[in-house]
Amino acid sequence: MIIEPSVTFNPEQQFYNFEVLNPFQAVAHVITTRNSLFSTDFNLSFHTGKEEQVLENRSSLRQFFKAETLTIPKQCHGITVAQITNSNKEQIPTDTDALITNVSGLAIGVLSADCVPVLFYDPVQQALGAAHAGWKGTVAGIAAVTVESLQKAYGSNPADLIVCIGPSISQKHFEVGEEVADRFKELGLSACIAEVKDKKPHIDLWMANSLLLQKAGVPETHIHTAALCTVDHTNQFYSARAEGFSTGRFGAFILLR
């Protein structure tokens, strides 16, 4: 499966943007990097960074969006989706791996350092989503659960959704044990597994999430993949596989203007 990159890079602010979302005036989005907004360490995780610096980075990102709030959940590799509204916008969802909203001015996003960040936009119902899909979340169906949550909360039609799969570990570097590969096989995702001679299997999380999104009703032509490997691009992205779990976290964020 050959994937053509679908992102553009802003060298001044050190962000990536999905080309498909850029024409929509009603929505703003970014994929952050290590050096976003003139920082030398734009880590957004309290777990791996100094609180003062992380707070400053998050504040800079909120100001960039001109957002009332910036919501980032405490992720756990699960399938819980939180709906962000005016009544709970100041709260931090715990044990949550996806957020949805239809309220203007509320930025939502997820963090990553190899896992797959996924952004959702419904241009018909004007609703948004952001999901964090590591391999556990992928096989548990976090992408499809987010689609279902958008349907239930806002009446979104999966056929209308635009879904963007962000930078994450590529198949070349995502070596897993046989027990993990078996989980993908059980879901009919054998096409996402590369058997490497004398080595452990390698999983394509980009393809896996794309196939699961299609099964949930999102057209293949509406799914766009950054095709940027975090392991190969540690000059721009944090990578737990390449640098250790204590490295920083970048993020994928989206907001209705």
Task: Please tag this protein with its features.
257 residues; alpha+beta; CNF1/YfiH-like putative cysteine hydrolases; 6 helices
Q: Stretches where pLDDT falls below 50 for ≥5 residues?
A: none
Helical region count? Answer: 6
CATH class: Alpha Beta
CATH third-tier fold name: CNF1/YfiH-like putative cysteine hydrolases
Overall 3D shape:
globular
The CA-CA distance between the termini, in Å, is 35 Å
- Number of separate structural domains: 1
Report the CATH superfamily: CNF1/YfiH-like putative cysteine hydrolases
* Mean pLDDT reading: 95
Into which percentage range does the β-strand content fall?
Answer: 15-25%
Class computed from helices, strands and strand pairing = alpha+beta
What does the secondary structure layout of this molecule look like, with pairings?
Elements: E1 7-10, E2 15-18, E3 27-31, H1 51-65, E4 69-71, E5 81-83, E6 98-101, E7 106-112, E8 116-122, E9 127-133, H2 135-140, H3 142-154, E10 162-165, H4 178-186, E11 193-194, E12 202-203, H5 205-215, E13 223-225, H6 240-243, E14 250-256
Parallel strand pairs: 4-7, 5-6, 10-13
Antiparallel strand pairs: 1-2, 3-14, 6-9, 7-14, 8-9, 8-10, 11-12
